[in-house]
Design goal:
By secondary structure, the chain is of the alpha+beta class. It has one domain. Helix content is about 20%, strand content about 35%. The protein has a 5-stranded antiparallel sheet, with helices on one face. The longest helix is centred in the last third of the chain and has 12 residues. It is globular, with a radius of gyration of 13 Å. It starts with a strand and ends with a helix.
Length: about 100
Amino acid sequence: MFKVNSDADAGGTSFHSNEIKATTKQLIKTFGPDHGGDDFKVSHEWIFEDDQGNVFTLYAWKDTNLYDSDYGPVNFDSIRSWHVGSKGKGEGEFVDWIEKKLK
């Protein structure tokens, strides 16, 4: 149904209100290494695509010392909130799928 696709065009995806709670280590173990962020506001990001070509992102937003020197470096074992980005289609199913994969 969904797959990691770092080459998918994530342009136009945005945060709508869904977040996932997970450690960085859990995400790397489940989905492989992230492809990095697109700027200093996004420190880690995975891009996914569904069977219809809809693109979703899972990313850390403004929460490391890359953005603000008052933050520490990423702690791979700490649970944190990850933003879910989409163009508004199928986000609920994507969140359900991510949560099942992380269990």
